[in-house]
Write a structure and sequence with these properties.
Elements (H helix, E strand, L loop, with lengths): L5 H12 L6 E3 L8 H10 L2 E5 L6 H20 L7 E6 L7 H11 L3 E5 L4 H9 L3 E6 L2 H9 L4 E5 L5 E2 L5 H9 L6 E4 L5 H10 L3 E4 L1 H4 L8 H9 L5 E4 L7 E4 H6 L22 H8 L16 H14 L5
Helix pairs in contact: 2-3, 2-13, 3-4, 8-13
Bound molecules: flavin mononucleotide (FMN).
The site of flavin mononucleotide has 27 residues, from strand 7 and strand 9.
């Protein structure tokens, strides 16, 4: 039987939460999240994650896995209590590296595997076998139902306003709709930018906040300096949603599109979905020059270390505690 029991997931989640300073996953981001960001996030007390496709060629992925495991082990040996780390697998059929990435992920056994852009069905049993959890990234209630039926332990609900591939649904509608049929962990993403937003996610019925954009502007992220500065300079008015680049609606920074010589007013609708993130592919090139960000970007006023950012989030989260 591939699915974990509700009790088993609950007790696993309680153990994970006890290791966090606040219930946050630093969300996986293409060309942005690498081992430095993952290690810094886990040491600071939030779940760190990265898309396996960021490590190219495949040999680099093994090196990244080894670094993450080694650094967190050293931290533990020195008395630290790192948060879990998660590997993000793009399970869409156009990802030519999917099988290789799954095989290596199973070798290094991250506590959490986050699947995106397809069904988690192909990895659930194997991740459960080594004691890991599978969270499935979904952007509709229908996909949430499918992922739950496929045995996902947790559902990452990507609501509207998210950086990169965004969902169409407002968080206020999305979370309660999924809570009607799903008792497991819900991770809410989309425009969450501060500790108060993490509280709000919990008030809606989510267990964790999934924060991407805010972590791009950290010292440890792999984003170029100009991208980090653009986040500091931009507000929600600079965010544009388009399916032009990948065939799926995604939020981008308008100034980066203009800088790439493209008129944002002329963006078309692309029908074909393609997630071939090889270094030389058109998709990878688009993500390199066209920078994604969510609607919460206004709150980014400086580039911080991940540790300082997590401190700030934790202080804000504590200050936003509901009255008892
Ligand atoms: C630059 C960028 C790249 C992203 N790449 C991925 C990815 O490779 N895999 C994935 O599952 N989600 C990806 N996402 C989505 C994030 O994991 C997350 O859903 C989103 O950032 C949450 O919304 P926020 O940016 O408003 O916090 C990306 C987001 C951004 C901003």
């Amino acid at each position: 039987m591939a699915a974990n029991s509700t009790d088993k997931i609950e007790s696993h989640m309680a153990r994970i939460k006890a290791r966090l300073v606040l219930p946050v996953i630093a969300a996986p981001m293409f060309l942005v999240s690498g081992p430095e960001l993952v290690i810094a996030a886990c040491k600071a007390g939030v779940i760190g994650s990265f898309p396996t496709l960021n490590a190219r060629p495949i040999e680099v992925l093994e090196d990244w896995f080894q670094r993450i495991v080694r650094e967190l082990e050293l931290f533990r040996a020195a008395g630290g209590n790192p948060a879990p780390w998660a590997a993000n697998l793009i399970v869409h059929r156009s990802n030519a590296r999917a099988d290789q990435d799954v095989a290596l992920t199973l070798k290094y056994r991250p506590e959490i595997v986050i699947t995106a852009l397809g069904t988690p069905a192909g990895v659930v049993a194997a991740v459960h076998d080594y004691g890991g959890l599978v969270f499935a990234d979904v952007n509709s209630v229908a996909y949430a139902r499918k992922a739950a039926a496929a045995g996902a332990d947790g559902l990452v609900l990507v609501a509207s306003g998210a950086g990169g591939h965004t969902g169409p649904l407002n968080a206020f509608s999305f979370v309660p709709a999924v809570r009607e049929f799903f008792d497991g962990p819900i991770i809410l993403g989309g425009g969450i930018i501060n500790g108060r937003g993490v509280r709000a996610a919990q008030m809606l019925g989510a267990d964790f906040a999934y924060i991407g954009t805010r972590f791009i502007a950290t010292i440890e992220s792999m984003a170029p300096q100009a991208y980090k500065q653009m986040l500091v300079d931009c507000t929600e008015e600079d965010i544009i949603c388009s399916s032009h680049f990948t065939g799926v609606a995604a939020n981008y920074l308008k100034p980066s599109i203009i800088k790439a010589g493209i008129d944002p007013a002329q963006l078309g609708v692309r029908k074909e979905m393609k997630f071939d993130h090889r270094g030389d592919s058109a998709e990878a090139k688009a993500w390199k020059d066209i920078w994604a960000a969510g609607q919460g970007v206004r709150a980014i006023t400086s580039v911080l270390s991940t540790a300082d950012l997590v401190d700030e989030l934790a202080r804000d989260y504590a200050a936003a505690a509901p009255p008892v």
